[in-house]
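Thread amino acids onto this structure.
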């Protein structure tokens, strides 16, 4: 019987080759996009849930009540003191970013920055399930390093990386001359659904040599606590500030507040925190992506139903003849189901190939900060197949109803007549598809216009031909560097400043003796060449005086603490402070120790305030202006 069904299906495919290709390719494209997006969405929804202790692991977040801003970085000492003094804490571990550290394989090479690395405590792998596949952590080995399989393969090839020595150094510190570290273990590549991502894990004892991080006021690490199942979270949150006040003399418990953030909430519920080295996402975007999946599937299945109903109408006479020769409704239903199943199977096989090819491009759009390789776990694969099966089941159900109604509603004679137009399902699907397509087109146009506006809007400064780079320097040799750079004809101007003109973080600015006029403003620290380098047009006033501050560090240190520095502001700040004549107005930055005098203003709105603070930064960024090529 099934052999006969296959013959009929193949005969129909030969007669309708174009429609068959459209059906299979259309479903394959929809399935591949569904597979890619659902794979990413499920990855986000299962973030950090694979750890066996995930339900009992929390991260400490803290808030200084004066600043009213929440931070995920905490004091380095909180972990060990909390475990020792607060009941209910089973274990702790700390993670410290290593953005300023470099690595080299031997003494003759240059240090290169480590792009993805973290300092961790020895008990890190006791709390988190990242399997060690080779070697082990030996606490007797000072300055150990653990690398992932991918890192080991890239840098050591087929060689065994265990006991290999490397050199690491803090590139921001002139006092750090580097130290030797030994690779003691290799772990599996971290899964995509882990908010902690790194290729290298370094013994935290390397960074603990820095005495600065041993102060309670120095927030340098992410602290994770493993609690007992009977622990009262609210009690521990109240006890941590009390414990901090007990062990230091300057931070009071009523000035500090902490919250324990569940490990499984970190990815989706950290937008109230400052940017950090731990991955984070947006649940609204995840839900939007899932909605897009459903719309794409609906469009593809609607197109499939339209083509199949057209083919059913074309073959209705053959089906009627089959019924005259003894075929029942079950036979017709099995034949149609088999054809839909073959279409689905072919589309699935093609969709897996398409998904593998398209994954690098799609993931670059969906997760540019965390690209990962295409991998389907059993959970993701089963979820995708379940979604496809449900969608095709509904499609088959609609087609079965349509076929049954055509063949059985008014008899065979009426069935072989053309279907009435007002009852044609294709008309309904066409209207729905056009509506969805129009809505998607409208949304795509709106997003495209917004992106175009963001890319081409007037930022108030010239961002073309600007080279922006980070240069650590504890000896304040910025002027020497600038003089050297300006000898090159290809460099029009050079400036030292921090940060770029699109800075987001705001600081408090007020007018002396008018506390009601206090606002939050974005601050740029830079030298007198900053305005010329970015070609910012002043509306009134003048630029900062180039020789208003001494170049030599010792001379700069002799300036009185209340020395009035010059500043240039934008019109938004002028309006916010209600300044009728902004020039020569004195402002307070942070507190009364940093008075500022306005000497100029511009119309740019992306920067609220710009001030000359030469030699205040030990590690700054530099910008070069060069001619267009």
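Threaded sequence (629 positions):
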């Amino acid at each position: 019987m099934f052999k006969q069904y296959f013959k009929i299906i193949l005969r129909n495919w030969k007669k309708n080759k174009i429609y068959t290709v459209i059906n299979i390719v259309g479903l394959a494209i929809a399935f591949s996009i569904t597979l890619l997006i659902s794979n990413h969405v499920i990855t986000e929804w299962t973030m950090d849930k694979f750890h066996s202790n995930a339900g009992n692991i929390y991260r400490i977040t803290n808030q200084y009540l004066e600043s009213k801003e929440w931070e995920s970085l905490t004091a380095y000492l909180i972990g060990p003191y909390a475990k020792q003094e607060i009941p209910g804490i089973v274990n702790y571990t700390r993670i410290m970013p290593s953005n300023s550290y470099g690595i080299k394989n031997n003494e003759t090479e240059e240090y290169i920055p480590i792009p993805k690395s973290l300092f961790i405590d020895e008990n890190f792998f006791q709390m988190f399930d990242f399997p060690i596949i080779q070697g082990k952590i030996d606490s007797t080995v000072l300055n150990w390093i653990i690398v992932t399989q991918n890192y080991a393969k890239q840098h050591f090839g087929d060689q065994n990386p265990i006991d290999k020595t490397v050199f690491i150094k803090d590139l921001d510190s002139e006092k750090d001359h580097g130290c030797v570290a030994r690779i003691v273990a290799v772990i599996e590549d971290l899964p995509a659904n882990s908010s902690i991502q790194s290729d290298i894990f370094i013994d935290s004892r390397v960074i603990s040599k820095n005495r600065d991080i041993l102060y309670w006021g120095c927030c340098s690490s992410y602290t994770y606590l493993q609690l007992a199942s009977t622990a009262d979270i609210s009690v521990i949150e109240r006890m941590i500030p009390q414990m901090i006040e007990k062990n230091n003399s300057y931070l009071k418990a009523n000035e500090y507040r902490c919250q324990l953030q569940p490990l499984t909430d970190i990815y989706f519920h950290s937008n109230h925190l400052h940017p950090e080295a731990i991955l984070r996402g947006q649940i609204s975007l995840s839900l939007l992506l899932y909605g897009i999946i459903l719309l794409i599937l609906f469009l593809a299945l609607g197109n499939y139903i339209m083509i199949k109903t057209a083919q059913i109408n074309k073959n209705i006479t053959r089906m009627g003849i089959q019924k005259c020769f003894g075929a029942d409704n079950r036979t017709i239903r099995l034949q149609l189901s088999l054809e839909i199943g073959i279409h689905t199977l072919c589309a699935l096989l093609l969709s897996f190939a398409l998904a593998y090819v398209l994954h690098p491009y799609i993931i670059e759009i969906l997760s540019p900060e965390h690209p990962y390789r295409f991998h389907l776990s059993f959970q993701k694969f089963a979820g995708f197949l379940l979604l496809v099966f449900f969608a095709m089941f509904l499609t088959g159900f609609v087609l079965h109803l349509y076929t049954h109604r055509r063949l059985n509603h008014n008899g065979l004679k009426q069935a072989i007549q053309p279907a009435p137009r007002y009852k044609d399902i294709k008309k309904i699907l066409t209207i729905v598809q056009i509506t969805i397509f129009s809505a998607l087109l409208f949304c795509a146009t709106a997003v495209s216009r917004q992106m175009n506006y963001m890319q081409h809007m007037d930022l108030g400064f010239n961002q073309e031909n600007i080279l922006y780079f980070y240069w650590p320097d504890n000896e304040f040799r910025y002027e020497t560097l600038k003089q050297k750079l300006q000898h090159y004809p290809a460099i029009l101007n050079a400036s030292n400043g921090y940060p770029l003109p699109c800075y987001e973080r705001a600081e408090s600015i007020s007018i002396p003796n008018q506390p009601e006029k206090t606002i939050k403003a974005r601050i740029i620290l830079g030298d007198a060449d900053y305005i010329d380098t970015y070609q910012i047009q002043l509306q009134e006033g003048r630029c900062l005086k180039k020789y208003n501050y001494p170049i030599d560090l010792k001379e700069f240190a002799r300036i009185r603490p209340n020395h009035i520095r010059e500043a240039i502001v934008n019109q938004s700040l002028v309006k916010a402070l209600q300044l009728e004549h902004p020039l020569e107005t004195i402002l307070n930055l942070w507190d009364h120790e940093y008075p500022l005098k306005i000497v100029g203003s511009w119309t740019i709105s992306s920067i609220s305030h710009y001030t000359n603070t030469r030699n205040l930064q030990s590690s700054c960024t530099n910008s070069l202006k060069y001619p267009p090529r």
